[in-house]
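[Solved] Which block belongs to which protein?

Original post:
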Amino acid sequence: MGGIADIAAGRLSAEELSENFQDMYPALDERQAHIEASRCYFCYDAPCMEACPTGIDIPNFIRKIQTGNYRGSALDILTENIMGGACARVCPTEILCEEVCVRTTQENKPVTIGKLQRFSTDWLMETGEQPFERAPSSGRRVAVVGAGPAGLSAAHRLSMLGHEVVVFEAREKAGGLNEYGIAAYKVPNNFAQREVDFILSLGGISIEYGKALGRDISLKELNTEYDAVFFGGGLGTVRSLGLEGEGMDGVYNAVDYIAQLRQSETKTDLSIGRRVVVIGGGNTAIDMAVQAKRLGAEDVTLVYRRGPEDMSATHHEQEYAQTNGVTIKHHAKPVALRSSDGVVTGVEFEYTQTNTSGKLEGTGETFVVAANMVFKAIGQVFVTDPVTASALSLDIQEGRIAVDDNRQTSVPGIYAGGDCVLGGEDLTVAAVQDGKLAAHAIDQYLRG
């Protein structure tokens, strides 16, 4: 039943693909923004502000939209979150600021804070203005490892504080997951790179591409050559299913495929199967499943081992996948890959249940889902070798870097933030906050 011949590129025309990968949600125009801003109660003890990981003064920026002060509104946002444009598009506002909006409790219709944030930040970026200025030079140099949200946030704030920053990035482009790991329909029109350009236009920040920690540079070298170091390298590898034949044709890591998809201009060069299975329950699994459907897959099934309430993807994301043609099956775990002549043809799953002690267990009953392509999206893990293999070994706890409240590691002068640190929330907005907090801690460290 099929095989590799059922995987092909160009299942849809260039025009169809272009339409399928348009903006997930149209931006508010000026009239719509004013109407939406007028719904805000401008609460004194604003619960939305408390729920924002970066502490944006949400009522204040919304009030400035209402009064036509778009520049001031954008500054309120970007002062706390320099990647406020990306976060307005990818942040799960439905479980953060909008979930606690007073309008939610009163009428189950929150102020669309994310869309208003996008309106303001887009307005400022379109002007081409760099609204921030650098402080007088401190004469200090800081190395930043990783040009993702955490690294770029730290670099921007450090530059504002007067330090020279050199960023070491393993890939060919900056942006991290915003550039390589998020669904194309969430950040279309090359937005991730436009935001990077906006950040770098401050000055005082240089990026050295193709430089990976542990391969081209080491912590010991950076600690010797620079006055401080910030590590924001993210998570390095994908979890394995632990099934026989995982390396066969037709089985892919979702994060690798999404990275390839994000770098394709037309999407016509991307091969996709007629029948696709995605294994996982997070945002990457949802992004992969929806994009497979939009590339032309006929049947896309996402399978998760627990119930919908246990998925790390929000209810909003799950619903979005289902309304975009994705079938979601819960309470099933993969137990075997089916194949023919070394090519995947399906996945065998076992139904699961939660026992009285809360532990997940199989029921013994199985079923098979046919597939030409199988995507693994069961989470990523931090590769510790680059930060433990040198003379400056960082403290690792539960597989991630241990840091204090200031994001300082066990080695003085070396800081870390983002997905790689213990307690990291795996959110862009949380990574941006880590970078900002670390930058201020580094500034205090450098100034004695």
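(Second protein starts here: sequence line, then its structure tokens.)
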Amino acid sequence: MNETCFRQYICRLVPLRCADGVLTVGVPDDFFGDIVRNQFGDLILQALTDIDGVDYTYEFEAGHEAPLPPAVEPAAPKKPEPVRPRSGVGSSVSGERPRMNSSTEHTFENFIVGEENRIAFAAARAAAEEPGLYNPLFIYGTNGIGKTHLLQAVAAYMRGKSSKIRIRSTTCDEMLNDFYELLAQHKSLSEFRSSMRNVDVLLVDDVHRLAKKPQMQEEFFNVFNTLYRQHKQIILTSDRQPCEISDIDKRLSTRFESGMISELNMPGYEARLTMLRMWRGEALTKAPLSDELLEFLAQNISSSVRRLKGAFLRLTTCASLSGEEVTVSRAEDLLHAQIEQEIASRNVSPETIQRTVAAHFGISIADLLGEKRTRNIAEPRMVAMYLCRELTSCSSTEVGAAFGKNHATILYAEKKVPQLCEANESLRRAVTQIKHQLHRS
């Protein structure tokens, strides 16, 4: 556990009482307690077993918060020993300078886990702890929601376990640049192939960028097969799942689908608020952002973690330079353009949603807006109504008018579709795919 996580989480636990072998610990709220339990529960239980030979357990009680300790000025890092780089293609195997940013700030401990990303987080951690368990591991989701963070967390965890492990960590664009540079110079590809194959772990970010590049696809196909046969761990990320990547060799997409596929979604409001609180705890400023301002950011910036952090840094810088607290009104002025873009991205038209849903389920617009109640039509109709409420600023009455229904029907769909998705994995995936398509359009 690094210092940042210790300060952000463990230092905020409040010991309350101990009775009958149960230690009661105070936490700010239940959501905070869930994060601590999920990420550090094993460490806590292990620590409790070392006390007086008693088999202690613990429980959390919401409503208690210890103040964050002051930040400790980090010690100056030691100057690294010079490493003689290999000529030619750059690589990020252990002992060499990584091409993809592998900053230690991106670890499993400071990845905020919520319902939207819990499975992807668990899969990445399992792959790091037990390489080969999920092979390949394919993580997909829209931009700026944590895919790169998870890749870097895997690399950091594995390097922490052993300095001898050989990790190739790269973006697809870096890989393509290396490949085409060698081709342009009429050089042998043997060094490129060696840098990709002589590894224990291959991490490739944004693998969808292979689309429309048949020569590189062929090369990567051979690399994939070599590593897979040797039981080397392969982890890939993309902005869409394999079956949705167009202009890519079918042999590649089927191999991407042969392991574990996990979707990463944008963290929900509670998780975004937790991120902001963590960043505030790390920020060095005389005028830290208020809880009200963090809630404002979490509510209004919901499309990308990168955009959320950018907005936070802008407000923190403003507070630091002025030495004064930033008000919500001031934040609205500073972030006007970003907030307008957030509103626009959420405000898809009902007509666009209707067309997209009808096309996805293979029914006509007339059926979607008609009176037929067979399941193959009624279910897509409810999905369209639900998405209109979620992705637009239209009221239930306005959505009802777009479908020729009353507002009570819309409210029913709004409540029913999440229940159907929870019970039907196929429908859940369909709704997710439609959302992704609408966001990309």
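Accepted answer:
You had them paired correctly. Confirming on the second one: The radius of gyration is 25 Å.
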